[in-house]
């Protein structure tokens, strides 16, 4: 059984709102590197049952890909407490994915939110 969730524009917001830690794999069936990354992602999902591992088929969900400015696939994104804390194109090797998950787990989300607020405060009003 797959431990990943197929994300669509219908369930995306709910999934990200209801879960404090969501990994998202933007992929497509024709993409070679996506197919290579899939078993690595699936294994990480099995090893981290407390996290939500989602997959967005960019062919079936072009609005989601566009909303996040996905330019190349696969792209891995991590959302914690409704904040995107990581986004990187390319198929990660298993060790790198494990490392990224560990780093995201260790983030102090209060600090992240403070940094975002400071960045937003420094941007000129439009």
Automatic annotation (TrEMBL):
Keywords: Disulfide bond, Electron transport, Redox-active center, Transport
Domain Thioredoxin per the UniProt entry, residue ranges: 3-106
InterPro entries in UniProt: Thioredoxin (IPR005746), Thioredoxin-like_sf (IPR036249), Thioredoxin_CS (IPR017937), Thioredoxin_domain (IPR013766)
Keyword Cell membrane: no
Classification via CDD domains: TRX_family
Keyword field contains Disulfide bond: yes
PROSITE patterns reported in the protein's UniProt record: THIOREDOXIN_1 (PS00194), THIOREDOXIN_2 (PS51352)
Family to which the UniProt record says this protein belongs: Belongs to the thioredoxin family.
PANTHER family: GEO12009P1 (PTHR45663), THIOREDOXIN 2 (PTHR45663:SF40)
Protein's recorded name: Thioredoxin
Organism: Streptomyces venetus
């Amino acid at each position: 059984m797959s431990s990943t969730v197929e994300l669509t524009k219908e369930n995306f917001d709910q999934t990200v709102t209801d879960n404090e830690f969501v990994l998202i794999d933007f992929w497509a069936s024709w993409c070679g590197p996506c197919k290579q990354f899939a078993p690595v992602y699936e294994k990480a999902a099995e090893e981290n049952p407390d996290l939500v591992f989602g997959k967005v088929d960019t062919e079936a969900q072009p609005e989601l890909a566009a909303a996040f400015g996905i330019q190349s696939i696969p792209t891995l994104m991590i959302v914690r407490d409704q904040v995107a804390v990581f986004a990187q194109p390319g198929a990660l090797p298993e060790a790198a994915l494990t490392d990224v998950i560990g780093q995201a787990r260790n983030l102090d989300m209060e600090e992240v939110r403070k940094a975002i607020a400071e960045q937003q405060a420094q941007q000129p009003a439009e």
